[in-house]
Amino acid sequence: MQKGAIRVQTENIFPIIKKFLYSDHEIFIRELVSNAVDATQKLKTLASVGEFKGELGPLEITVTLDKEKKTLTISDRGIGMTAEEVDKYINQVAFSGAEEFLNKYKGQGDGANIIGHFGLGFYSSFMISDQVEIFTRSWRPDSAAVRWECDGSPEYQLEETAKEDRGTDIVLHINAESEEFLDENRIRAILEKFCKFLPIPIKFEDNQINNTNPAWTRKPSELTAQDYQDFYKELYPFAEAPLFWIHLNVDYPFNLTGILYFPKITKGYEIQKDKINLYANQVYVTDEVKDIVPEFLMLLHGVIDSPDIPLNVSRSYLQGDPNVKKINAHVTKKVADKLDEMFRTDRKGFEEKWESIGLFVKYGMMTDDKFLEKANKFHVLEEVEGGKFYTQEEYRQEVQALQTNKEGKLVILYATNPVQQDSYIQAAKAKGYKVIKLETIVDAAFINNMEMKWENVQFTRVDADIADNLVDKDEKNDHVLSQDQETQLKELFGQQIPQPNIKVELKGLSAEAQPVIVTRPEFMRRMKDMAAVGGGGMNWYANMPDEINMTVNANHPIYLQILQETDNDKQQKLVRNLADLALLSQNLLTGADLTAFVNRSVELLGNEKKSKIILQ
């Protein structure tokens, strides 16, 4: 029997391993199963180059629980280890056997698929174990099987033992604090999380838990649309079918494979980030992919697999590296190219998917100038009625005669709530204007960004002013009222609308236009909307009263009737009701004011009925 002290290359790191090496204790299963996969892949490589001439037999990894003995065992039929190799790779912490093997067999067989690169993965087992045993026999002819044992101190034992088959069994004696890892459901869930797509069959309780040949590892030419749909179901069993997908397959200047799916997004925007999983040679690493995938694509679903992304010892945080930036740029380009192709080859289908696609496109245009450059060709504006779509250039050609202001800017008129803003939309349409829908959660920010990035473009919400003033301020004020009538009407509105934040103006509009039109100036409304969403240094905007313009249409015939009314109280109530109706149309009448409006309306209707009865 050999006894000795484990030779740590820097300092005694066992306490660090036990407490700090991995933030998540369940990671030990990934590390140990990954090591078993490595050992199996190494044997396949040796067989492919003719060094191993024996029978491979079934190459699978088994995970076994023994609740009575309180052990968890990971077994493989890979290359195994001699006593010298155990001493070299286990006792010398941080000497990576995978690294050495990979360098030796680079470019041969399955050598490129060796997972481990750190040499510390095995020691994650001590986070949850009082004792760890290794039973191993090398693939080399006439090798003796050996048993290694350690209790988490620097002391170990290494001795010959009996083991018929080649390969390695790692036996973990679970400590009292970690008995959760003796629960079948817990182990199955961890295996399905980390090992679901490993390339060697993994069995637990006689069931294989992994798909060894997932869709992203195959060539796009081998896959049908149904294959992609089926793989999506495998990833997200309860999700609605995706809109479309992009298959990534790059081998130069970096290695990258994967499939990114565009999910269907409803107006409720019940969406989740962290739905893209990062793998390294089919080993699950993390769902934190913000450095690899552009921020605007974080709402996509799917898988990215790259051995070229550097990871720290826990494989859970990305480090800065040129390859990460290259991969990020490549993903952006692939998405832009796919969207551009869809727009050019099937514009109708593209437009039908715009409700979901538009969220990604707009977000990308705001945050990535290279994407913006390409997206300007396929970003579309949807008209509020009729469902017609325009690119920015098409919209400009369609409306520039009517919707170019004195400064030479294209005025894009938009609605955020077409139902609520219908009267304003109809007034704009009556003047020949085209109003588009901008009603998603990103549109407020998108408008502000595009006004800076698009040349000579200004966005104006359709209810930001009366229709006559939406493109250019119309200073005309011709109306049918006499000077005395105008003065009297101004006084009536002044008495009923004393609020300083409401600016009342008499104007001569069409007799068919509403008697009172309430608008909220574009700039101030935008500031308040952004403050309500973003907070921060703009909180004071959110707390300010709404700035309101109340335009009284002095050409509406109802005012001649009101001015002829001899009952001053009724006259004032009629004026107040007209003002309140306009405020109500903009959701600006609430609380006690709304209650007073309802009561006043009932009273006026009752008085009208009494008058008719008396006249009869």
UniProtKB/TrEMBL annotation:
<feature type="binding site">
    <location>
        <position position="315"/>
    </location>
    <ligand>
        <name>ATP</name>
    </ligand>
</feature>
<keyword id="KW-0963">Cytoplasm</keyword>
<dbReference type="InterPro" id="IPR037196">
    <property type="entry name" value="HSP90_C"/>
</dbReference>
<keyword id="KW-0067">ATP-binding</keyword>
<feature type="binding site">
    <location>
        <begin position="96"/>
        <end position="97"/>
    </location>
    <ligand>
        <name>ATP</name>
    </ligand>
</feature>
<dbReference type="InterPro" id="IPR020568">
    <property type="entry name" value="Ribosomal_Su5_D2-typ_SF"/>
</dbReference>
<feature type="binding site">
    <location>
        <position position="81"/>
    </location>
    <ligand>
        <name>ATP</name>
    </ligand>
</feature>
<keyword id="KW-0143">Chaperone</keyword>
<feature type="binding site">
    <location>
        <position position="31"/>
    </location>
    <ligand>
        <name>ATP</name>
    </ligand>
</feature>
<comment type="similarity">
    <text>Belongs to the heat shock protein 90 family.</text>
</comment>
<dbReference type="GO" id="GO:0140662">
    <property type="term" value="F:ATP-dependent protein folding chaperone"/>
</dbReference>
<protein>
    <recommendedName>
        <fullName>Chaperone protein HtpG</fullName>
    </recommendedName>
</protein>
<keyword id="KW-0346">Stress response</keyword>
<feature type="binding site">
    <location>
        <position position="35"/>
    </location>
    <ligand>
        <name>ATP</name>
    </ligand>
</feature>
<dbReference type="GO" id="GO:0051082">
    <property type="term" value="F:unfolded protein binding"/>
</dbReference>
<dbReference type="GO" id="GO:0005524">
    <property type="term" value="F:ATP binding"/>
</dbReference>
<dbReference type="InterPro" id="IPR036890">
    <property type="entry name" value="HATPase_C_sf"/>
</dbReference>
<dbReference type="Pfam" id="PF13589">
    <property type="entry name" value="HATPase_c_3"/>
</dbReference>
<keyword id="KW-0547">Nucleotide-binding</keyword>
<feature type="binding site">
    <location>
        <position position="76"/>
    </location>
    <ligand>
        <name>ATP</name>
    </ligand>
</feature>
<feature type="binding site">
    <location>
        <position position="168"/>
    </location>
    <ligand>
        <name>ATP</name>
    </ligand>
</feature>
<dbReference type="GO" id="GO:0016887">
    <property type="term" value="F:ATP hydrolysis activity"/>
</dbReference>
<dbReference type="Pfam" id="PF00183">
    <property type="entry name" value="HSP90"/>
</dbReference>
<dbReference type="InterPro" id="IPR020575">
    <property type="entry name" value="Hsp90_N"/>
</dbReference>
<dbReference type="InterPro" id="IPR001404">
    <property type="entry name" value="Hsp90_fam"/>
</dbReference>
